[in-house]
Design brief:
The complex is a heterodimer of chains A (342) and B (290).
Chain A (H helix, E strand, L loop, with lengths): L19 H20 L4 H4 L3 H27 L8 H18 L3 H23 L5 H19 L10 E2 L12 H22 L2 H11 L1 H6 L4 H11 L2 H14 L1 E2 L1 H4 L2 H14 L6 H20 L4 H16 L3 H8 L11
Antiparallel strand pairs in A: 1-2
Helix pairs in contact in A: 3-7, 3-11, 3-13, 3-14, 4-5, 4-11, 5-10, 5-11, 7-11, 8-10, 13-14, 13-15, 13-16
Chain B lengths: L2 H29 L6 H19 L7 H19 L9 H24 L14 E4 L2 E4 H23 L1 H11 L1 H6 L4 H26 L7 H15 L4 H22 L4 H15 L12
Antiparallel strand pairs in B: 1-2
Classes of the chains: A mainly alpha (342), B mainly alpha (290).
């Protein structure tokens, strides 16, 4: 039919070996960017009355950077589309929340534990779901999500469908948002570093190979089963971490915050819009969509039409820009250096 | 626990599930399309049947003559517009999952926007009546639904087995390239088959309108149930979908009796995981050619 059709799942050229020049500019770029982001909590004199709003939106954007970047490990590099990765997000949120309520441990500490649990749950679930490939895997991840939603909806210990109220954080009023912002920043940066590390490792090469042709990859001696299970488990770490932070910042937990298919849709959409199987793509997609969403909510209010737009963008991108922003720009050789994180 | 009673209720419900799942499995078998929007298409038809009932007093079974043809046409239009661009993609099935995922979100949002999240259901007289057989009872509504499902499934079987287009569909499903070589217009056959799948969703929606209360966000639950039972039966196999539907509906009935109705959907999800562990290709599926 369309001969020139680009398959986004196969669009992953191995990253070019960075020249020392490119490497230096990348290091300068990332240090500069991180420095700027670290300084955002000090921006009150500049943004004035908008301070809390800016901090909140930035926190949300960083959370989505971590979620979409983590999804990319399994959905992008390995080409195994998961519609259930927000299960890790919820598990992290509930684990840290329950430990706060019943033990009094701060979620900023237990977020690390949440990350570990996310990894272990990913290993266990991956062992089962990754026995299948293609559509059956996607179906298994949907079932996983609905199963988790059902369990948390009916689990009295954590409040069932009504949810669980958390004790309010005791931070100075002027700096109330800063700790959450900084924690999200660390998690988002961590997820990007993890994604870069994976992309530049033997694991990453193996994943790209199996994304292109699993049988051939296996024939070449790549332990595809182990590789994809590890990728799935790694994709569970940071969603659990940001789930812990996010739940604490909301001060209450409810299954509908974490375990909806809408959250899964957003993760997939951000990664695809930005560019699947690239390091920068999911982050770009996350920031873009959060910005768009804020703009549309402030203009039109929040309504059912939001998911119409989400679904509509997904369809348009799939049909017309399957490589996403970063992928399309790279294909044309027009990717600006500050977006070339590979 | 009354075992024969649970068995009867499970079987009549399973008949309806089989009808719902047949459309999904047909599309996968013929075109390798995994249609995540099947649930929302059923809801669309259910809303149609609901308004036909409340505005004009159409019986849900009478509404079949509206929902089936209109969903048939709607399905063909959607297939013509959305799917050709994806063809030739190496991971066609996965791309169709994402595409229909987007479609499902769009339709869910539109349903929510126009009809709000209110729980709805039509209420023909037979929906609440039962037939008594000794100390067993069969709800009339569910029995009618199961009978209608069996009739429609037989009609689907006749269409596939005894008509020219049906043979073309089967040929396409067995080997797309070979079918094309012997002169089957596979792209036209695919569009037709998509329409048939959607007509089945339309029929299921009409039945759903009085069998269940429904609301826009509910379709995820439905599609998860349907997908679980077609994975159980073997993706693409209509026979497998029917067996899967009957098995799981009966099982869900027992689970519901033992642990409460809340947990009955769990049967489907757990069954899915168990079957993936034991036999990833499903009961009637073939091992993927390597």
């Amino acid at each position: 039919m369309v001969d020139t059709h680009q398959d986004p799942l196969l669009a992953t050229q191995p990253p070019a070996q960075p020249s020392s020049n490119g490497r230096r500019s990348r290091v300068v770029c990332s240090i500069g960017l991180t420095g700027l982001l670290l300084l955002l909590p000090l921006s009150r004199p500049i943004v004035g009355g908008l301070y809390n709003y800016v901090m909140q939106v930035a926190t949300i954007a960083l959370m989505w950077v971590a979620l979409a970047t983590s999804w990319n490990l399994i959905g992008g590099y390995a080409g195994y589309i998961s519609l259930g990765n927000n299960v890790f997000f919820g598990i992290g949120g509930y684990l840290a929340g329950a430990l706060l309520v019943y033990q009094g441990w701060s979620p900023f500490v237990t977020a690390l534990l949440a990350g570990l649990v996310g990894f272990l749950v990913g290993l266990m679930v991956g062992l089962i779901t990754l026995r299948t490939r293609g559509p059956a895997f996607i179906i298994a991840t949907i079932a996983l999500l609905l199963m988790a939603a059902l369990i948390f909806d009916n689990w009295e210990l954590v409040g069932g469908a009504n949810g669980l109220s958390l004790p309010l954080p005791q931070f100075p009023r002027d700096w109330a948002r800063a700790p959450f912002y900084l924690a999200m920043l660390i998690a988002a940066a961590g997820s990007v570093v993890l994604s870069w590390k994976v992309a530049h490792s033997k694991l990453g090469l193996g994943l790209r190979a199996l994304a292109q042709d699993e049988v051939k990859a296996e024939v070449l001696g790549i332990d595809t089963k182990r590789y994809k299970i590890i990728a799935f488990a790694l994709s569970g770490i940071f969603p659990a971490v940001v789930g812990a932070i996010w739940g604490y910042s909301l001060t209450y937990l409810r299954p509908s915050i974490f375990f909806t298919i809408g959250i899964a849709a957003q993760m997939v959409l951000m990664a695809i819009i930005g560019g699947r199987a690239t390091v920068a793509g999911p982050a770009v997609g996350a920031i873009l969509l959060v910005t768009l969403n804020e703009a549309s909510v402030s203009q039109f209010g929040s309504s059912e039409l939001n998911i119409v737009v989400t679904g509509g963008i997904l369809i348009v991108v799939l049909l017309f820009f399957p490589l996403g922003i970063v992928g399309s720009l790279r294909q044309r050789g027009k990717l600006p250096a500050f977006l070339d994180w590979d | 626990m009354n075992i024969p009673q649970t068995l009867i209720l499970g079987l009549v419900l399973g008949g309806v599930y089989a009808l719902m799942a047949s459309g999904v499995t047909l599309l996968f078998g013929v075109m390798r399309i995994v249609n995540l929007a099947h649930g929302v298409f059923m809801l669309l038809a259910a809303y149609g049947a609901f308004f036909l009932f409340t505005e004009w007093g159409f019986d849900p079974f009478l509404s079949l003559i509206v929902t089936m043809p209109s969903m048939f046409i709607f399905g063909m239009v959607i297939h013509r517009f959305l799917f050709p661009r994806l063809e030739g993609s190496d991971r066609y099935s996965e791309m169709t999952v994402l595409l229909t995922f987007g479609l499902a979100l769009v339709l869910e949002g539109l349903l929510g926007f126009f009809f709000t999240g209110i729980f709805r259901s039509t209420s023909p007289a037979y929906a609440t009546e039962s037939i008594l057989l000794g100390d067993l009872f069969i709800p009339k509504g569910q029995l009618y639904g199961a009978v209608a499902s069996v009739v429609l499934l037989l009609a689907l079987g006749a269409l596939l087995g005894y008509t020219k287009i049906g043979h073309a569909i089967q040929a396409t499903s067995q080997n797309r390239t070979a079918a094309q070589t012997v002169g089957v217009n596979v792209s036209r056959v695919s569009t037709f088959a998509f329409g048939v799948g959607m007509a089945l969703a339309g029929a299921a929606g009409s039945l759903m309108s009085y069998l269940f209360t429904f609301f826009p966000g509910q379709h995820w639950q439905w599609i998860a149930i349907l997908l679980s039972l077609i994975v159980l039966g073997g993706m693409g196999s209509i026979r497998g979908a029917i067996v899967g539907a009957l098995l799981l509906a009966v099982l869900a009935g027992f689970v519901s009796n033992a642990f409460g109705a809340t947990w009955s959907p769990m049967t489907f999800y757990l069954a899915l995981f168990v079957i993936l562990l034991i036999r990833p290709e499903g009961l009637f599926g073939e091992k993927e050619a390597v």
